[in-house]
Design goal:
With 184 residues, the chain is mainly β. 8% of the residues lie in helices and 34% in strands. The strands form 2 sheets. Strands 2, 3, 4, 5, 6, 7 and 8 form a 7-stranded mixed beta sheet that branches. It has a two-stranded antiparallel sheet with strand order 1-9. Strand 3 and strand 4 form a beta hairpin. The structure holds zinc ion (ZN) (2 copies).
């Protein structure tokens, strides 16, 4: 449960003051908020302080305030195949009911702190669920050369270290020799 310690000036803390408590009252908000720290998995996450665009709807219901929203956030990470830095973005949806009273709420439910609620945990949970465990810089990233570790996207076309098969060895003299693969 949310402890009673929300800072009204914290960026992700939203006041429900204008909403009132009459069920059915609604309010929409568009917010641009700085991304909280430490949202991510191994290879990708939300850069701290990046602009997160939120469209949320606050709705007074019997037990509390229902928040429904979407958030668009930039992502930064590392390609799981070639280890290059990559950037992308994601859009997530979330919904959270903030209870007026702890008596109505279960252990894991969110509570209003007076008229304040904190959007950060709902956003955090929603984003982490969508993050890929193996992000790639492009769908056809061919990764690194297993022999020398060169990033294949940066290498000469046909980069390779094939050992010439004995059957082909006699043909070797027939093709001009160029581009030994050590050069890149
Ligand atoms: Zn890659
Ligand atoms: Zn190589």
């Amino acid at each position: 449960m949310t402890p009673h310690s929300l800072d009204p000036r914290a960026p992700w803390v939203v006041s429900t003051h204008d909403l009132g408590r009459r069920p059915g009252t609604m309010r929409r908000m568009h917010l641009t908020l700085p991304a909280p720290a430490d949202i991510g998995v191994d290879m990708i996450g939300v850069p701290r302080g990046a602009d997160v665009e939120l469209d949320i709807r606050l709705e007074a219901v019997m037990e509390g305030v229902l928040v429904t929203g979407t958030a668009q956030t930039p992502l930064r990470g590392e390609c799981a195949r070639c280890l290059e830095e990559l950037t992308s973005e994601t859009e997530v949806s979330f919904q959270e009911l903030f209870f007026y009273s702890a008596e109505d709420a279960a252990e894991d439910d969110s509570l209003l702190d007076g008229e304040l609620l904190d959007l950060e945990p709902a956003f955090r949970d929603a984003v982490v669920l969508t993050l890929p465990l193996s992000p790639v810089c492009s769908d056809d990233c061919s990764g690194l050369c297993s022999e020398c570790g060169t990033r294949l996207a940066d290498a000469e076309p046909g980069h390779g270290h094939e050992v010439i098969d004995a059957r082909w060895a006699k043909l070797q003299g027939l093709v001009p020799e160029h581009n030994n693969d050590q050069e890149s």
